[in-house]
Amino acid sequence: MLVGRQRCEVWLLRLAMFVGLLSAVVTVIYLTPVPDLQFASCDRPCHELDWPMICRFRLVLEQHQSMGGWCGDCPKNLTHCFRYGCVIAEGLTRRILTANKQLPGPAIQVCENDILVVDVVNRLPGQGVTIHWRGQKQSESPYMDGVPMLTQCPISSYTTFQYKFRAAQAGTHLWHSHTGNEFLDGIFGPLIVRKADRVEEQRTLYDVDDRNHILVLNEWGSGSAGDFPILVNGVFHKDKLMPKLTVTPGLRYRIRVVHAGGGNSCPFFVSVQNHEMLVIALDGKSIKPVNARTVQINQGERFDFVLSAYAEPADHLIQVRTNCTKMEGLAAVSYNLTEPSRAQPQLQISPLESQITMDLMSTLTSKECTKESVMCLNEISSIHDIPEPLNKPKMDVTLYLPFDYIEASTDHLGRAGLVPRLGNATFMFPSSPILSQPDEIDVDEFICNEHHTPERCSATAPVCECTHIVEIPLKSSVEIILINKDKYSSNDHVFHLHGHSFRAVGIGHDVKDVDIESIKQLDRQGKLMERNLVTAVEKDTITVPKDGAVALRFVATSPGYWLLHDQSASHWASGLDILFKVGETSDLPPVPEHFPKCGSWVGPQFFLI
Ligand SMILES: [Cu+2]
Q1: Which of 18, 31, 147, 511 has the highest Cβ tally under 10 A?
Q2: What pLDDT is stored for residue 349 in this prediction?
Q3: How far is the CA of 179 from the centre of ligand 1 (A)?
Q4: Do 39-195 and 397-587 come out as alike in CATH topology?
Q5: Where are the transmembrane segments (predicted)?
Q6: How many whole angstroms from 178 Cα to the centroid of ligand 1?
Q7: DSSP 143
Q8: Is the dihedral angle over the CA atoms 71, 75, 80, 85 positive or is it negative?
Q9: Rounded to the nearest whole angstrom, what is the distance from the C-alpha of residue 394 to the centroid of ligand 1?
C-alpha cells in the first residue's frame, strides 16, 4: 500500500514539476515580444528575434544619359522628372554611368546580420569594375571587399559577379565603385543597415527612422574647379526640383547623410534652416549626441542626425556648401500640413535645448577648432568606451606611416612630375589579386615588405614602386600614425581603412619640418599629440590635416588583405596606398569555388614566330 502511495506521490511531484516548468516556459514566451508579421522584403522593421534574411539585389551598371529621352518634358512637366530612368543631375544632357538607371544608385536597406546577395552586372563596354561596401568589415568574407587586383579581379565587361556577405556592421554606409573614376560618374548608393529598436542605443532620441530620409551628397564633375554643382540625391536644385524630406510637425526624425565624394574631394558643410541637428552617429557608429547648427564631413564619411520638427510648419532648406564651389546643393524639410500636429505641449521645448549648441561640428581639423562654439573630431566622444587592449599605452604593432610627394622621374602616373609615397613606397597593384591568386604574383617583381624589396628599389632609388605589404598578426592590437608631409598641396588628405574600423585616438599638428625619427621621439615623450584612450570615436575614414598627424587604433580581427589608402586622389592606383596582411595564409578563408581569375599572359613561343 505504502509503496503504491509513494509511487503516487512521486508521480504527483513529477506532474507538479512538469506543470511548473510548462507554465514558466509559457510565461517566458508570453512576455517575450515576437515580430507581429512575417516580412517578404528585407526592407522591414528590424526585430532582435528575427532570423536574418537572405536579401537579393541586382545592380546593373551601364552607360546612361542625364536629362535624356527618359525624362520626357521634365522640368516643364514635373511628373516626367520622376519617371523610371529619368536622371536629372545638374539638368544638362550628358553621358553618365548609373546603377539601375538611377543616380544615386538604389538604396540597399537591410537589418543587421542579414545576408546580402548582390548580383553586379557590368554592362559598361570594355570597362572592368568592382563594388566596395564601405563600412562592412567582411571579417568572414574578405573576397567580397571589392578591391580590384587585391581581393578580386575587376568584373569584366558584360559579366556578372555575385557579392555575398553578412551585413554585420549596422549604420549608415555607402556602396561605390572602387575602380577608375566610375564613382565620379554616378556608381554609388547608400547602404543602410538597421538595428532592432530594442538594441539601437540612440532609439529614444527619435520617433521616426523613415526609409526615405537619406541624403546622398556628391560633387558633380561637369563644372570646372570652383564652379561645379553639388548634387543632393542626384539633383542639383533647379526650378522647383529638389529632394524633399516630408515630416509631421511635432515628431523627431533620424536623417542619414552620406558624402559620396567627387573629383575635387571637397568637404561639405550641411545645415538645415531654422533647425538644429542632433548628431548621433559618425560613419555608422553611435556617438554621444552633439547639437550643431552646421556639420562638416569629408568624402566617404557619413553622419546621422535627429531633426525635431518643432519649427514653423513650412518648407525649410537643407543647404550643402563647400569652400570649393559657390554652387550649393539644396534639399528641403517639408512639413506635412495635412497631418495634424503631433506636438504635445511638453514636446514643443526640445529636451535637448538645455544642451549647448555648437555652431559647427566637424570631422576635420582646422584653426576654427580652438573656438568654443566649434567641436572637432578629437572632442567628439563615442558612446562606447575604448575596450581593452586598445586603451593601453603600448600596442602590439606600432606603425609610423609618413606620406609625401617628391619630384622624381618615373613612369608612374602621379601628379605632373610628382610621385606620391606612403611609408617610403609608391604603391603598385599586383598583376593578379593577391588574396585569390597569391601564387601567380612574381614576388621579385612586385612585392615589398620587411623581408623583401624588388631589385630596382636600391637604397639610392628615390622612388620604389611596389605592392607594399605589412604583415600584422591576427588579433594583435595595432596603432597607425599617419603623418602628412605633403608640402605641395594645401589640402588635407582623407584616408580609408578596409576590413576594420578604428578609434581615432589622436590628432597632432606642425610636423612639417620635423623628420620621422624626431617625430617618433616627440611621440615617445607625449609631445606629438594628446591621445584620448577612453572615448575616441570609431570610424573607417579619417582626415589627416595639412602638416599634421593622426593616430588610429584597432584590433586586427579580420584575416585578409586590407587596403589603407588616400581616397582624395581620383584614381584608385594613385600610389598613396598600403596593404595590411592580417593573419597567416592559413588563417584566410578558402578561395570560393570557381572564383574568377585574371593575370598576365605571354603567348607561347611558336605563336606567329
Ligand atoms: Cu577603398
Answers
A1: 147
A2: 43
A3: 9
A4: yes
A5: 12-32
A6: 6
A7: G
A8: positive
A9: 28
Element (H, E) at 66: strand 54-66
Give every CB contact of residue 7 below 8 A, 6+ residues apart in sequence: none
Sheet of strand 94-99: strand arrangement: 94-99, 54-66, 115-123, 160-166
Rg of the chain taking only CA atoms, in angstroms: 27
> Which three-class secondary structure state does DSSP give residue 9?
helix
* Domain residue ranges in the chain: 39-195, 201-383, 397-587
CATH 2.60.40.420 correct for 39-195:
yes
Q: What is the mean pLDDT of each run of 10 residues along the chain (609 residues)?
A: 71 87 80 54 89 95 93 90 92 92 95 96 95 96 96 97 97 92 81 96 95 95 73 86 93 97 89 96 96 96 96 94 90 86 50 73 90 94 96 96 83 62 91 95 89 80 88 98 89 93 95 90 93 97 95 97 84 79 96 95 72
**Domain covering 201-383 assigned CATH 1.25.40.10 in the classification:** no
Contact of 293 with 279, CB cutoff 8 Å = no
Q: Answer for the pair 487, 404: CB distance below 8 angstroms, yes or no.
A: yes
Residue 204 CA to ligand 1 centre (angstroms) = 34
Task: State residue 471's pLDDT score.
Answer: 97
Please report where in the chains the cell 536644385 appears, as a residue: 237
**Cα 146 to ligand 1 centroid, rounded to whole Å:** 8
d(CA 499, CA 138): 6
**Is 397-587 a CATH 2.60.40.420 domain?**
yes
> How far away, in angstroms, is 259 Cα from ligand 1 center?
14
Compute, in angstroms, the gap from residue 492 CA to the centroid of ligand 1.
17
Region of 135 (left: φ > 0; alpha: ψ -120 to 50; beta: rest) is left
> 80: helix, coil or strand?
helix
- CA of 434 from ligand 1 middle (Å) equals 16
Determine contact, residues 184/225, Cβ cutoff 8 Å.
Answer: no
Q: What is the Å distance from ligand 1's center to 183 Cα?
A: 12
CA of residue 496 to ligand 1 center, whole Å: 6
CA 401 / ligand 1 centre spacing (Å): 17
